[in-house]
Design goal:
Length: 164
């Protein structure tokens, strides 16, 4: 499993919402994203959670989080576990008073819940290998220049430069 974050929510050329999941610490895959097409309501719910927007009434995913809290359960993590015939599958791992439970979920609902609960999001390596695409939000030339600039900075920096 590779830990990811929601890099962006975009709308494709047909008007469909796409959630882009980007690896966090995997340098070999830093320029890749997993695009998952989701519904408009789920996209809105994820965006509200990511942007930490206060809503006057709870969304369905807020209700899920509140229901879990009311029975002393917590979302530990969510995982996009597989891709079959164009359909993504996910699981929510819960910590409950009666032990750890794994629950089948759509990736959009799992990510929306994780975004509210502060839980980590993971993608199976096989899913990233099969569905990963170059990150459209990163300009390869700009990224390469940034790395080169940072290397030059490291080559030229002197610890004395940081003394007050």
């Amino acid at each position: 499993m590779i830990q990811v974050r929601v890099a962006a929510l975009v709308v494709d050329t047909t008007g469909q919402h796409v959630m882009l999941l980007k690896p966090l610490l995997d340098a070999d895959r830093a320029g890749a994203v997993v695009p998952i097409w989701i519904g408009e309501l789920e996209a809105t719910s994820i965006l509200v959670a990511i942007e930490d927007v206060e809503m006057p009434r709870p969304f369905a995913h807020d209700l899920m989080r509140n229901l879990l809290a009311s029975v002393d359960a917590e979302v530990e993590r969510v995982e996009v576990t597989r891709l079959e015939e164009g359909t993504y599958f996910a699981e929510v791992t819960l910590s409950t008073p009666s032990g750890v439970r794994r629950v089948d979920a759509r990736p959009s609902d799992a990510v929306a819940l994780a975004s509210r609960a502060g839980a980590s999001i993971w993608v199976a390596e096989s899913v990233l290998e099969e569905a990963g695409v170059p990150d459209p939000t990163v300009d390869e030339a700009d990224a390469e220049r940034s790395v080169d600039d940072f290397r030059r900075f490291l080559d030229d920096v002197d610890p004395e430069d940081f003394r007050g």
